[in-house]
Amino acid sequence: MANEVMIETKGLTKKFGKLLAVDSLDVKVQKGVIHGFVGPNGAGKSTTIKLLVGALRRTSGNGFIKGYPIGSVDARRAIGYSPERPSFYKDWTAFDYLVHMAALSGIKTDEAERRSQDLLDWLELSDFAKAKVGGFSAGMKQRLSIAQAMSHKPELLVLDEPTANLDPEGRMSLLQKLKSLPQEQGVTIFISSHILSELEFLIDSVTLINKGRTVAEDSVKVMKEEIALNRYVLNTSNNKAVMKALQGHAAIQRMELDNDGSIHISSPDMGQLQSAVMEAVTKTGSLLKYFGEEQVKLEDIYRSTMDQGKDK
Amino acid sequence: MGFKAVVRKTLIDLTGWKRTTILLLLGLLVPIIIGISWRFHLRDAGLSPDMTTFYILKSFVGISFIWTSGFFLAFAAVTSAAGAISKESSDGTLLTLVSKPIARRQIVLGKFTGIVIHALLMITVIYLMQAVILWFLLPVEAPTFGALLLAIPWMILYSLLVILVFTSISLALSSLIDNQVVTTVLACGMIFFVFLFGSISVMFIRTSQTYEENHLYMIDGSYQFGNAFAPALEQALGGEMLPAQELGEIKGFAGIFKGGRIGEYYSSSDYQYPGELANYVTPAVSVILLMVLVAGSLTVAVLTTERKDVG
Hints:
The complex is a heterodimer of chains A (312) and B (311). Chain A has helices at residues 45-52, 73-78, 94-104, 109-122, 138-149, 168-185, 196-202, 220-228, 239-246, 270-284, 298-311; strands spanning 5-16, 19-30, 34-38, 60-65, 68-69, 79-82, 156-160, 188-192, 205-210, 213-219, 231-236, 254-257, 263-266, 288-293. With 312 residues, chain A is α/β, with parallel strands linked by helices. In chain A, helix 6 (168-185) links the parallel strand 7 and strand 8. In chain A, helix 3 (94-104) crosses helix 4 (109-122) and helix 8 packs across helix 11 (298-311). In chain B, 78% of the residues lie in helices and 0% in strands. The longest helix of chain B has 35 residues, at 142-176. The interface between A and B is medium-sized, with 30 and 23 residues.
């Protein structure tokens, strides 16, 4: 399973008239991971996803799913796709809809029925199996959309904002279910979401895109380590005085106070910084509450990467 | 398997009880009204049993050709097919559909097959009910009823041609235009064009000569349909082509007789149809031309859908 590539795009480009929605995008996703796809509104996330699932035709570049060209039937056989705003046949029941979706994918009727019931149970929709989809709440529709994406046991789940319409409880419940899929069923998940805190809980690797281009791509762990490198957090009983004492010290590259009352410091030399901090704390008569390496969140990676993008 | 699923879904969509009831009532409305008027006509005419049988058979075939297989079936096929792709597209369901491992051409051909099967089943039921209604309304003896039933397979064969042509063209429009209402209006306009082109063109150019010299019959849908219908008509009426004078209003609509166009009929001084068959092309050529139109329209529908950006 290691090093097997599930998604790979090379210079993938999509233009709508003069509008360049996806610009030479390079993405690589390993098999068996949960991969986040993150970017600001209008960055080209949904367009890229629609290119991957074969709904849109590429203008140039290439893309492969399990080695099959994107848009081909073989590539789509590997994919289960849940769109950002799912639409359904409103007069159909949830069960019939799922059986139909499985049948479209070539699953025989008896297996499709069994699979549909399992998915309805798994996504806690079995009480509404015989209810018409038109009467479903937005959250129920979102879950049904994920069920239809999984109806033919795809190896790759492509989920565009899957938790957008769910309440906090439903959101956590779904995320936990999704998190177990790679280990339990060997499924790879490619997920786009603007809620970074929930992706943090879920993903192993991430692609950050902006203006249709890849800004950064790696495992979350590596990215966190890169950003955390040389970054420290300091908290004292008198932050302002300590900051004043540290101002202009050779060991400090950058220093700022956040809204939560912590000082964030960039320094190339941990030893020198440690001495400077101790000196400043003693000098100001402050109490040292915390001093250590920065704990980086996905949001920090996002901010840092997008800021670099702006600088460029 | 995916293809079968599309056919099944199309059939389910088209067989809702409301839609089915409306279509059956609409399809049978004209035969019922005309049947009632014939009841009085036949009562006063004092025809012999043979003449009565022939009159009823001819009228049954006539109404089947002009109304049931003509306008009604064409409209039913058009309204079924016009939303086949465009409705999925405007409702957003096409996005999920095209992400499934099924070739887009199978989606188009599956919908086409479903609509054709549904229309054939519906028209068969309507023909049978039409025969039964005439049996109740008119003085139909057992042999006459048998003759009506024997005519039905030939009418169904001709209906298949109408279904194929109008479904394929509507499907092509549906794949080209995302708005179902616009597609339906255009497709309905096409029905009028196909059936009335010959009559309207003769009304404007006044003479059949211009019509013939410019080979306008080649693009005259009513002529090609009428010409393709001729062998079915012959078989339906007992295996012999009857004297044109006996065919009454059928030939005016079929447009297969020289000067038999409605336009010419109304512009002639004595309001008489000449009885000579036009024979511009053989019925087989007309069938081939119509099938080429079907193949062309389906190709457009498939290629457009395959190249479509969805979502």
